[in-house]
Amino acid sequence: MRISVVIPAFNEQNAIQRVIADIPSSLITEILVVDNGSTDETAKMASEMGVRVIREARQGYGWACMAGIEALERPDIVVFLDGDYSDHPEELEFLVHPILQGRADLVIGSRSRGRREPGALPIHAKFGNWLATKLIRLLFGAQYTDLGPFRAIRYPALARLQMEDKTFGWTIEMQIKAKKLGLETVEIPVSYKRRIGVSKISGTLKGTLQAGCKILFSILKYGLWKA
After folding, report:
1. Which among 110, 123, 180, 183 is least buried, having the fewest CB atoms inside 10 angstroms?
2. Which of 177, 103, 185 has the alpha carbon at shortest distance from 140?
3. How far separated are the first and last CA of the chain, in Å rounded?
4. Domain count of the chain?
């Protein structure tokens, strides 16, 4: 099966090559790094690794993910992976396994259920994940434990979701819509380590507040969305 990896990246020059190097090359068909308006050498460092680099000047996690999707050449499976080296790219094989077995349309890598390096997930990020997943369970009956960015999805299922969020609500939109459309979703434990550099979201008070408000807004918004 054709497996494509989309890596949204903003100012990740010190991490991006390590992320690419650890992706199991025997499993994947292509790697796309989406340079989301970086002001450093992210695009250059990614290009040196021989992967395709897509430019998306409109900043926002959702913008970057959608730019990557638009550039894909109709794969069977799409894997989303952050460019900060906080995930363990070598665990990609475990992430796609339930899809390859025909047991899942969407697989979420759960940091809450996996091994975490001390300090990798700040307290406010842990609380935000707990609160968001609790609300999703209460409102939609979905048994999620995390909104982690490391995830895999069948391409036809991704097309059905008609993703539209441009910023912090991307992951939660995907998970709520997947539940409402009746997609087979599986969570697997994934490892998580301290990222290289400072997080643009959880690393600042402003980013944390913006992400928290957007996630709560998204839960309410997609609660009204009709599948």
Report:
1. 123
2. 177
3. 28
4. 1
